[in-house]
UniProtKB/TrEMBL annotation, chains A, B:
One of its GO terms (molecular function) is chloride:proton antiporter activity. Belongs to the chloride channel (TC 2.A.49) family. This is Chloride channel protein. GO terms for cellular component: lysosomal membrane. The chain crosses the membrane at residues 89-110, 138-159, 189-207, 250-273, 285-307, 337-361, 373-396, 451-470, 476-499, 511-535, 541-562. Its main location: membrane. The lineage of its organism: Eukaryota, Metazoa, Chordata, Craniata, Vertebrata. It is found in: Membrane.
Length: 770, 770
């Protein structure tokens, strides 16, 4: 059995106990650090998957049920609760509507920009095909691409680096309960939307679907708070929802709405949010999430139908549509299922390769490409290279296909083909990736020759791998689907050619679908929600079982080598991500071994100076403090009687809620929940609050503001049990007590997140200083 | 604000303290009773929705992490956990396979039996139409129906009353955490399957879908335990899963597999299970549930395709198939949505009416029809009346429709129609309800005249209402869909006739679908899962938004009048059902007011006699006992140090694990978890365990067997907070402690379930004695 030794010892913290007038012991809270790192380690450890960063705060999903809160709830009538419930529905409707609208804008903008680009390039190529000098076309294409990409990269790199990438890792973290800085700001949304339009129009191997999820989440965070801090506008509505619990619920709805708009998959969106975020199943919440998703896909569909001049045609519910898989009488045969599973395994392998390559690339980028200028240049380089490679592939390909009467190609390139024919390689490269996926799924058998597909798979694989992680806003879903569809179709064609009766494998499009699922599953390793998303996007439930088996196989095979792409990126950011369950072999760890100790506690009535000192201690930066009743005639730790948060203390200090002042200024307005809500979520730092020397000697009565019933566990509780409680209730702080109810430690997210199953059994990560 | 006074005082319990040698205070546990009921109330209060029955035990979703358990977990290697995980998948696959197989058997049996019946009656009618004497046909039909129904009713009434009805209320309760006696037994399954075949073949206004959910759950409970107590066969496999936590997880999977097989809706099945059961979202569990669902629908589909001689045709994934709703370019228009919402409201009203009528009927049945013979006779009566009414409707109808070339009717009755025509009323009445639903959805416009539909709606409404609650095994889904489809189609026809340009409402089938959703939603009030089930059954995601809006409206309107049908029946059984959240206005209640007190506690080392006495006390029948360390030199309550269950104590007593014996018989085998698992789930009653007078003087050491880290809350905790903890972790007992960690009370399911929001704010239900 795996064994583990605490590699670090706790600092004694004697230096911080200060003047000695603080009765209870100091220390221990969400942020804890180890002596070993205090002494000698490099100050800045920016990205390391072996460390847990302390720069991330947690969201507090547990309500602080202090007296103010309870009084408010008790004052509220049944009707009041009904109104709140109705507001929640209205907000979710709004979230869905706005997310759908954004998706619609992105789609129209990309269609038009890419349309203009391909039209210009096509004209140019046609002009030069006859007379020679196609290198000019190449340069034109490359420059156009690079220009688009440059704009997209500049706004991301210089204005809002948080908008880079697909945003799914960040949203995963947020739903998991980690506050990623700047992730749900309005500015991020604007940059994200513009960025994704540029990068897709710039011809990068990217999709516009991932960013939709992020966009939905930002919309939700904005709408639900009824104000924008960026715009300095407070609509004075939805004030009740200004706390982590409610906000996170709405962000789940926003993410779901994003998925729904991206793939036309409302149920998939709900399951995505549940899979990533909601640990506690709340029926009404799920129902609202579903509502937001439905509205979102409907809005997108409705406006697109108007844009396409077919109002009321609700047949394009998402940004990507796989098109209709006509279910023949026999969709697939039982004996094909093993083949599908083999494809799943292949997808897992290729996905793992993709992830490993991307991991190395990301490490390289972190070390050497961290200046914005370099990032923009790399992005432009990738844009130009993508155009060059595509051009070369098209140029050297001699796979000519006849132009059918019901031609689905938007920009058929004739190039060197005979009249009435078009270059088949161009359908894959000279097109937005969404359209290429659809062509691979639905073009009739024989539209592609195997060589075209192999070359395409190979080049696109490396291009996509290089592209993911660039400082542009872009998703990895569509490139993955495209790679998979290409090799899946190739597999189908080969199968038909090597079997005696090729006709039974007639439809290579089916294999393209399975390949796409396998490749995507191998890269992102989502399971339940991805199955449903794929099924909804194909609009054919018959493929549910094979898709599920394929995704499952891809996940098992892929997990053997390396984690999913999003998890890799989360780990590289050293985010304290909590998985759904404690590691299997962790039953022998108890709360005593896991917790941070000793803990900084406050008394019910505490000296202002003490509080200010503790909060100002930048080396600890704790966020939650147990409130204790000292045990009479004993130097021991006090009995826990509450828990108070840094943010609450800050508001109390700001409003100078001191016992002495309360006596002298009896007419003073009592502090209300509204004051806490107004300060949410950007509580001022302690440094901005001035406390005079006289005030330092005042006392603060925390009784009314602390949470009087924090969840506690005895110190013998096993890690899985602590984990379950922590995860199920979305806690931020869990007080560990002894049999006398005295505080002995505090369990926070980092204490739990640092245990994981490695190659050699249970491993413990260290905590970074930043 | 609502106010509430404790209407009952606690009994002093002085009579039960017995000899006085028990140190801690006695009393209080899962089962508590009130003095007022002790004195004078009738002994047997069989069914009352104002009471909570105490005859139901709770499932324990929280693991008892005692030393034995922890030792086992710690001994287990990582590989061991992997194997367990694989077994779970295998079991889920088996559950899906067997559930699909059962669904297949039911379908084939019903098709054949009903086919024979309709063939015979049709022949007979045709014979007598010309010559007169159709009353003989009527008698034949009525007798055939009554005969089938009699068989179905007899096996249910005399062999296994638990198999009556759809089984959905029982499964809802089980997933909610209430152990309904005999609900997951093999015998129940057999009776259920035979019963549903008889009642559907007997022409009752019932469906075979609800019972599938129950069947799936029984299969799951059986397979996962690796043994059958009824058959006295232990396969010695899956022993690890012999506890409430694991079993309940598998039952969720079984219920989902049942839904999946019934409606061809694997995702709907997953959501059903989640909506009803899993309070804690567990990703791996959900994924396994999905797997079981997929396998189930695939199995059904596969075997049905073989039966229908079209092997590999995977187009009938469920017992009921709504058929393909061909999405024209415009499925519905934006301006139709208000109409759909009006239909939703109508569905809510009609559903409420249905439920109220059925409620009165059920009350009547409880009072007057509780003898099995009477029950069988009532069922036969309903069978005969159904045939008679159907016959009368067909006889007096003169709605003749031409027999088309692509005739979808299986048994077209010509009756008095001209040659080449058939009686349209007969398509609705002279058919299995599944086929009637499909006809209403898909028959071309003009197949029914409005009068036929109105009469059909009216009669079928009352027939279905009378039928639900009979002592036969049958579901209410299909009748509800049928009623709704009939009036929905009627609505569509009327709409087309009153508007100037009728052609835009061309398809009455669309309105039939919306009406079906509205009626079903109005009766059962399921929301999320029902939307997904309907969408999956129609195979067209475009209808998602209208179906959701309709179900939502139906629920809101219906809830205004009366609860859903299943909830009514659950309440009539006085089941302590826990809803997902505490009532909104309950913040002013604290654990102190909610808990049961005083509590029967044990010492770590307790006298056997004391334990036997407490367990034998039939008037209390407690199930969980806090274990305490007495506070030195004080008569006060002890500090909590563990929690032990009745079932554990029973096993300990049975194996005579006494301190004295352990000393004398050192070689004795140590008690293992296996001993507890072998006794699960039917622990012997305390009366069957003989303890001699000498043994009564022995001591038992509970340290090793108790759960040393039970969840506790301080007594000031608000009810919603207690509720959340209880529900999120699936607890059975929650110990309430004071600031010194001394036991002051115990919160159990009944303490929480008795608060509900009534017309006048928060109301408190009383606890029944039985």
């Amino acid at each position: 059995m795996a064994n583990i030794t605490k590699k670090v010892s706790w600092s004694s913290r004697g230096d911080e106990s200060g003047g000695g007038e603080r009765t209870p012991l100091l220390n221990g809270s969400e942020e804890v650090r180890y002596t070993r790192q205090d002494a000698g380690c490099p100050k800045e450890i920016p990205h390391n998957e072996k460390l847990l960063s302390l720069k991330y705060e947690s969201l507090d999903y547990d309500n602080s049920e202090n007296q103010l809160f309870l009084e408010e709830e008790r004052r509220m009538s049944f009707l009041g609760f009904k109104c709140l419930e109705i507001s929640r529905w209205v907000i979710c409707g709004l979230i869905g509507f706005l997310t759908g609208l954004i998706a619609c804008c992105i789609d129209i903008a990309v269609e038009n920009l890419a349309g203009v680009k391909y039209f210009v390039v096509k004209q140019n190529i046609e002009k030069f095909t006859e007379v020679g000098g196609l290198s000019i076309s190449l340069i034109l294409w490359a420059v156009l691409n690079a220009a688009f990409v440059m704009v997209g990269a500049i706004i991301v790199a210089f204005f809002e680096p948080g908008a880079a990438g697909s945003g799914i890792p960040q949203i995963k973290c947020y739903l998991n309960g980690v506050k990623i800085p700047r992730v749900v700001r309005l500015k991020t949304l604007v940059v994200k939307v513009c960025g994704v339009i540029c990068s897709v129009a710039g011809g990068l191997a990217v999709g516009k679907e991932g960013p939709m999820i992020h966009s939905g989440a930002v919309v939700a965070a904005g709408v639900s708070q009824g104000r924008s801090t960026s715009l300095k506008k407070d609509f004075k509505i939805f004030e009740y929802f200004r706390r982590d619990t409610e906000k996170r619920d709405f962000v789940s709805a926003g993410a779901a709405a994003g998925v729904s708009a991206a793939f036309g998959a409302p149920v998939g969106g709900v399951l995505f949010s549940l899979e990533e975020g909601a640990s506690f199943w709340n029926q009404m919440l799920t129902w609202r999430i579903f509502f937001a998703s439905m509205i979102s896909t409907f809005t997108l569909n409705f406006f697109l139908s108007i844009y396409n001049k077919k109002p009321g045609d609700l047949s394009s519910p998402g940004l990507i549509n796989f098109g209709r898989f006509e279910s023949d009488s026999v969709a697939y045969n039982l004996y094909e299922i093993p083949l599908f599973i083999v494809m799943g395994a292949a997808g897992g392998l290729l996905g793992a390769l993709f992830n490993i390559l991307n991991y190395w690339l990301t490490i390289f980028r972190i070390r050497y490409v961290h200046r914005p200028c370099l990032q923009v240049m790399e992005a432009m380089l990738v844009g130009a290279v993508t155009a060059t490679v595509s051009f070369a592939m098209i140029y050297f390909s001699n796979d000519c296909q006849p132009l059918g009467p019901d031609q689905s190609e938007d920009y058929p390139l004739q190039l060197f083909c005979a009249d009435g024919e078009y270059n088949s390689m161009a359908t894959a490269f000279f097109n937005t990736p969404e359209r290429s996926v659809r062509s691979l799924f639905h073009n009739p058998p024989g539209s592609y020759n195997p060589l075209t597909l192999s070359l395409f798979t190979l080049t696109y694989f490396f291009l996509a791998c290089w592209t993911y992680g660039l400082t542009v806003s872009a998703g990895v879903f569509i490139p993955s689907l495209l790679i998979g569809a290409a090799w899946g179709r190739l597999f189908g064609i080969l199968l038909a050619s090597i079997t005696p009766d090729g006709s039974i494998w007639a439809d290579p499009g089916k294999y393209a679908l399975i390949g796409a699922a396998a490749q995507l599953g191998g890269i992102v390793r989502m399971t339940l929600s991805l199955t449903v998303i794929m099924v909804e996007a194909t609009g054919n439930v018959t493929y549910g079982l094979p898709i599920m088996l394929v995704l499952l196989t891809a996940k098992i095979v892929g997990d053997y080598f390396v984690e999913g792409l999003y998890d890799i990126h989360i780990k590289l950011q050293s985010v304290p991500f909590l998985h759904l369950e404690a590691p299997a072999t962790s039953h022998w760890l108890t709360a005593r071994e896991v917790m941070s100790a000793p803990v900084t506690c406050f008394n019910r009535i505490e000296k202002v100076g003490t509080i200010v000192d503790v909060l100002s201690n930048t080396s600890t930066n704790h966020n939650g403090f147990p409130v204790v009743v000292p045990v009479a005639a004993s130097d021991d730790m006090g009995k826990v009687c509450g828990l108070i948060l840094r943010s609450q203390l800050i508001v109390l200090l700001k409003h100078k809620v001191f016992v002495e002042l309360a006596r002298s200024r009896l007419t003073q307005r009592k502090l209300q929940l509204k004051d806490f809500r107004d300060a949410y979520p950007r509580f001022p730092p302690i440094q901005s609050i001035h406390v005079s020397q006289d005030e330092r000697e005042c006392m603060m009565d925390l009784t009314e503001f602390m949470n009087p019933t924090p969840y506690t566990v005895p110190q013998e509780t096993s890690l899985p049990r602590v984990f379950k409680l922590f995860r199920a209730l979305g806690l931020r702080h869990l007080v560990v007590v002894d049999s006398e109810n005295r505080v002995v430690g505090l369990v926070t997210r980092k204490d739990l997140a640092r245990y994981h199953l490695g190659k050699h059994g249970l491993e413990e990560m260290q905590l970074a200083q930043t």
